Amino acid sequence: MLRGPDWCGAVAVAEGPAHLLEELDYAPLVIAPEKIICVGQNYRNHILERGRELPSHPTIFAKYSRALIGECRNVCRREKA
Length: 81
Fold this sequence. Notes:
Helix content is 15%, strand content 12%. It is an alpha+beta fold. It has a two-stranded antiparallel ribbon with strand order 1-2. The longest helix has 6 residues, at 7-12.
């Protein structure tokens, strides 16, 4: 439906059950990315809390696709061996 040129019109007349937004469970928008590149520029307060110097440029790091979770999901951490 969303790939068509008039997807907005198709959605407007689509039939099916209606759901309240607050009852929906959102999954990640991109479920199988080839790569995830992150820019760590929003950790200023965390860096200062730990008594470290602020970097001169943002940190760039990668994440694996299995790191993606849906909205309001708990992050599961493995115990250290």
